[in-house]
Fold these 2 entries.
Entry 1:
Amino acid sequence: MSFSTPSKAELKDMLGMLFTNLDVQDCEPLALDADDLFFGLYLDDSDNPVTLVVCDMPFSAYMGSSMTMLPPPVAADVIKSGKLEDMMVGNIKEVMNIVSRLFMLRGGGHLRFSTLHSVKDGLPDSVSGLLASIDQQVFFDVEVPRYGLGKVGFLVPGG
């Protein structure tokens, strides 16, 4: 089963359903061994791990805050503390669920968002195994109006 990475326009359109005036730009890859990352794990219909979305702390805090209109200073404090609030975690999981459709745009198989993993809490073998065989990857800077800029990446392992 194959999946593809989305384009900048596709990500902007998908997230644009949640946020107006969102700016999305291509960017350099994240260092996947950084300790402030979160990985969304996606499974196929047989419950096999198949692909990942990675985001940094600013993306998670800004998206997680803006969805429930927490004030921007709250997001800034969370970034400094290095720990997302529970409400933000719930919101970023919803974003991960929504962007799952981006992997299936070009005839890829069906998949679904499973879990969100923080590097600080340790990554399970399912995530580490996929990271060891990344074939396609694309990264974006996403600026959430009034909040700030964060990074997100779509990672597809080789067949």
Entry 2:
Amino acid sequence: MADDQLSRVFAALADPTRRDIVARLAVGDATVGQLAEPYDVSMQAVSKHLRVLQDAGLVSRSRDAQRRPCHLEAEVFDLMTKWLERYRRQAEERFRRLDAVLAAMNEEDDGDQQDTTNKQTGAAS
């Protein structure tokens, strides 16, 4: 279930207009008309974008007298953050292991270089 929602969320956020709408709603609730203002598209087009965001669980709409403000659902971002965090931790662990291997190789190279210097110094004596 969470994977299905995560797929819908990432698919919804794949569109730059929808990402912009989410960014604007992060500042505060807005109506469809307010959200449509900066775009050269119809309110119907913005409504379709909002429907995709609603289906993904990113946005909800309430009724306030004659207005129907859109509201960003922050809990969905927790789901995304947990998913991303798991892979970030795994990547960091791989980088730590790689750093250890590179450090060991560097120490090995330094030791080989010291042996070569000692042999050259001993041969010159």
